[in-house]
Design goal:
Chain lengths: 669, 669
């Protein structure tokens, strides 16, 4: 049964509105009809996202290329793997108590994330029959296996129904329901898979009955349902979903889950979020929870909740974030560690946590307009997220270390190469859904004008203008923009100046203008009538970076960054016989930028003065400072971190020891 | 049924022999009767252990004090905890299928290790009625619950008997059997708990039937049975036990266990030990296996097996050992990491692995006579093992990190304080059995003379002499020895010169003698008739140590060591408001030794020049080298690592950052 109330109500006047006919018209020569992408706040926010079809990425650009690769390789690969892994069969044979469930007990979520990816992809690529048929068939499948009361979870339907909702801590039932809802919202916004929204609404209504204010007090061990319910509220306008999300946020932190194997903090159930001061626990759960917290805070106007998210953001980005933007330094419980505990070699840095951080920061950006959130989106996108997918789009890292050691034989769950799939396959379809909707996270627009946060070649339609962006960013520092305004009144084009960038300049129709950034944005307010050509230059000299001295794991090391891209040293670029860990860089010397061109396998490499020591025959411990080892000069070539492991598997490191030799020890007195 | 063949056969003539009446006579004014301690090779070995009753430690000395504390506190505490944890009840109600098994499925091993500890303790303290009654009652209990076929394991007896031997990988049945056998051998040698040896023999005979050459090919996921069977062979003379141990060693590494959750290497089943080149996998399992490997190699004269153990020793101590002698850098699988992966804060460094390393090195020392094994015994004993027990003898570390970070809230399974017990309680009773038999690991003796490996105040009886040792080692560098020889022929007294020591000297009856160490021992060959007084001086200036440059985690740091004792900096010794991680030491300055006396809480502290930086408000990452922060001079006080956490729980670190400032970066050209 399709409920007529599911047609989204009118959205605030400041942004375009989804319609049920969204899929019938796409971006191109004509302006967008306004298909909402992920995160479309109903309440007033500092920034308003543009519709998903308002921006078309140019596949010649880096982000557009990633999106094209996602459509051509990752998404079809995920669909294939759903069959191969048994995840789809689990649903197809749901209720068959004789058939054992295959894979993880939350394998349904792999299906849902892939569905979500396909729905988003169909916004920019409606002529993809295989995607349409996947979405339609899977939606019908889900409708057909949903129980009468709305329950839908192949693991508990195949298994013992009496076990439903008995293991809120580890059962992942609400987590799976959340991803189902997210998929349905995507399908609903994209206007595909008509069967899916009703399925999700039945699930959500069941949850409201069971867990709402009149129901039982419970939360899910793995956050996800919170943000999903808010998105469903946004799509349907039904307040009950928002209320339930808010209730889940408020119930958390009161020990409802019990300590479990890893303690309450692992589940973020150790302290209510409003009182929390430390970003901690299972990294993915922490960032997913915070995305939901910001969603709830945004829609309810709850300032104290937003303040909690800001406080935890400061904990996260002040002392618990890798240079690549990744989170999570512990393998044992996939968790964030103590402040400044950021070992490069043992970085867990799970891909899903990076995706969750991107989504959390996007919500913070919309809520507050503060540039620091866009800075973190850029950092994590170009490094931690970018590096998790192989160039072929069909191999993935689950953990994203910043140092793969020589003789890495104790591989545990951090393999030396990207793998085609994982037993716990959360990351690949998560990448697919992010990349398929990537254009939804780059720009915002409202009555006052248009704001560009992340730069990518493509064309953006806003109520004020069409903005064509031509750039080889992040390889080159120049972003050319052609603004065709169709507004008769002045408006403001805000161009983000990345936190790493000093000396940004902008030329308008060939003339330098003196414009200083305010709060991280160059804000150009003018009468834009007609066509205006701008050139934004974001100088990107190589930065030699050091870490806070409390980051013990990288003491005496530097890292190279150019623009948003963190670089790394790979064994593949070292002379034969030189062990990666024996190389030291001269941090005081020049670092050259070598441009190979955007069609080269590595468009820009960096070269620095370095030396190689032969250290293998030394004792493990020795008197300080020890006998100096004659160094061999070396020209070090560094490549972007996100490209590592694409030539040959092998050792890699982001943080490079410096050549500085310790001072000889004075004799005792 | 007591088998008369259980009376140990005659041992080689070079060492005293156990007898069934051993418990009736003890060390004191009269010479020992010769109660074998742990590890009593039948085959010829480079060194021969002295009987357990041949050495009595002086409780005023550090090691004797630890042993007294063990008897007074740790051992009674373990016995109490066996009741409190349900481990004894598991056995008492073995076979009751209605009662759920409490605690870990291998909780029987806690009982066995405590039994073993009590048996060893009764050798030096026969007048301990509560120990006698614990041993007697528990032995009778075990005899009463053993199945007719010899099977004895409360978990599988309470549970489904059909599950026996079905999970060789994770069931720990042979592991538990091994500890039962070790306890029985201890009881048999000590002459207590008469019921225990027959129980163990029935178990072992069942294992020979089931897993011997005529039985099935299998190994246990957790090594322990190997060394236990060799010890039972040594005690009973029954070759079948040695053959089965050798068979288990040879079957291992062929993938019989399957990969399990953590992969074959975790179980040391990834490669046959004879072909293994890397010390790896679960740290406790690796060292336990290697103890068994050396036992088998020793008794079978298998040179290739001993060579494998030596190769793995070089891997372990060349690139995978903490400065404290501990092993295991990974929490997730309690495992050894990659070469040079030795993070101080995330050191797992499990207590049981340290104990296992001590036992492995003792076997290597006996087999080869090479001093490096005694050096490692000393290092791990005084640091990793010593630090695992609180001063009260009733609180323990399971993990022994070398850095407890400020704001250590993400405690996981590495709490900031020693705990009275653990759900997985392997470590406390393991400490108890080691400490109760500690005097068995310090000296050796044979036809040629007596060898002292670890120095401790006490009295040693050997076939040649009575040697009284008076020393405050390791606090002071002087070891006084009084040798009362009762041999009419010249013999050699060999005194180990620790690897950390340069310039050791020895005086004989007040006269300096020119004696150089050969192969790490001062070997004094003379006619010792009458009484000779020696003074051995082992100079122990403070050593400022650095690590191999590939140990990334401690780059730019030094550690302080004096004699065998590694020192650390505790928050308790810092001025209020100074954060541990902000302190840097001047590694070129003098480090003073401050002697407080052996009755002081910390007998010797070290003082060094240091500074404190205020680093908390800096960005997590910044341009190199960054703005210098004005340092505040500080007098740093360091305490022995083994004493940390006894005053107040709080941050601690062994590796101290040095004050050396990076060079400012040259401008780009």
């Amino acid at each position: 049964m399709v409920d007529s109330s599911l047609v989204p109500p009118t959205a605030p006047a400041t942004a375009p509105t989804s319609t049920a006919t969204a899929a019938s018209s796409r971006v191109g020569a004509t302006p967008p009809v306004g298909v909402d992408g992920p995160v479309r706040p109903r309440a007033s926010t500092a920034l308003r996202p543009v519709p998903l079809d308002a921006l078309r990425l140019d596949p010649a650009g880096l982000l557009g290329g990633w999106q094209r690769r996602n459509a051509a390789a990752t998404l079809p690969h995920c669909i294939e793997q759903l069959d191969r892994s048994g995840a789809l069969d689990n649903l197809r044979q749901s209720g068959d108590r004789e058939r054992p469930h295959e894979g993880m007990w939350f394998s349904d979520s792999d299906v849902y994330k892939t569905l979500e990816a396909a729905a988003w992809q169909l916004v920019s690529q409606p002529d993809a029959p295989e995607l349409v048929s996947f979405v339609e068939a899977t939606s019908r499948l889900l409708a057909s296996v949903q129980d009468g009361d709305g329950y839908l979870n192949s693991y508990f339907q195949q298994g013992q129904p009496e076990r439903r909702w008995q293991d809120m801590r580890d059962g992942h039932e609400l987590y799976c329901a959340g991803h189902l809802i997210q998929a349905a919202v995507a399908a609903g916004r994209a206007g595909v898979g008509d069967a899916l929204v009703p399925v999700a609404v039945r699930v959500a209504d069941m949850l409201v009955d069971r867990f709402g204010a009149a129901g039982i007090d419970a939360v899910c061990g793995h956050p996800e349902i919170e943000t999903a319910l808010v998105e469903l509220f946004r799509f349907t306008g039904r307040r009950a979903y928002l209320d339930l999300a808010a209730r889940f946020v408020d119930l958390r932190g009161n020990g409802l889950l019990g300590p479990g194997r890893f303690g309450s903090a692992y589940y973020l159930d150790h302290v209510p979020v409003r009182q929390a001061t430390e970003f901690t626990g299972h990294a993915v759960r922490q960032v997913y929870l915070l995305a939901g917290v910001v969603d709830v805070a945004t829609e309810t106007g709850d300032a104290s909740l937003l303040a909690a998210a800001e406080r935890l953001w400061e904990s996260a980005f002040g002392s618990k974030t890798y240079l690549t933007g990744a989170h999570g330094s512990r393998h044992r419980d996939e968790a964030v560690g103590d402040p400044y505990e950021l070992p490069p070699d043992r970085a867990y840095a799970e891909t899903c946590a990076a995706i969750g951080s991107f989504q959390w920061n996007w919500r913070m950006l919309l809520a507050t307009g503060a540039v620091r959130y866009a800075d973190e989106m850029e950092r994590v996108l170009y490094n931690a997220i970018g590096g998790s997918t192989a160039l072929d789009g069909r191999h993935f890292f689950y953990a994203n270390p910043l140092h793969l050691r020589t003789d890495h034989n104790a591989t545990e769950d951090a393999p030396s190469q990207r793998l085609p799939w994982y037993d716990c396959a959360c990351c690949p379809p998560n990448l697919a859904r992010l990349m398929a909707s990537l254009q939804g996270y780059l720009a915002t627009a409202d009555d006052t004008g248009t704001q560009l946060h992340l730069y990518a070649a493509g064309t953006l339609h806003t109520p004020h203008a069409t903005v064509r962006v031509v750039t080889e960013y992040p390889w080159h520092d120049r972003v050319d923009l052609t603004v065709e305004s169709h507004s008769s009144r002045p408006w403001t084009l805000a161009l983000r100046v990345p936190g790493w960038c000093a000396g940004a300049t902008v030329r308008v129709d060939g003339a330098d203008i003196q414009q200083r950034a305010t709060d991280g944005y160059l804000r150009l307010n003018r009468d834009w009538r007609g066509t205006t050509r701008l050139t934004l230059t974001l100088p990107m000299p190589v930065q030699v970076l050091a870490a806070h001295p409390r980051v013990d794991a990288v003491r005496g090391c530097v890292a190279l960054r150019r623009g948003p891209l963190v670089y790394c040293l790979e064994q593949a670029d070292l002379p034969s016989g030189v062990v990666l860990e024996d190389v030291a860089i001269d941090p005081t010397g020049p670092v050259d930028t070598v441009v190979h061109g955007t069609t080269a396998p590595v468009p820009v490499t960096l070269q620095a003065h370095a030396v190689a020591h032969r250290g293998d025959d030394r004792d493990l411990y020795h008197d300080y400072p020890g006998t100096p080892v004659e160094p061999t000069p070396l020209r070090l070539t560094a490549v972007p971190y996100f490209l590592w492991g694409n030539r040959t598997p092998g050792p890699m490191r982001v943080w490079l020891p410096t050549v500085i030799e310790p001072t000889p020890r004075k004799e005792h007195q």
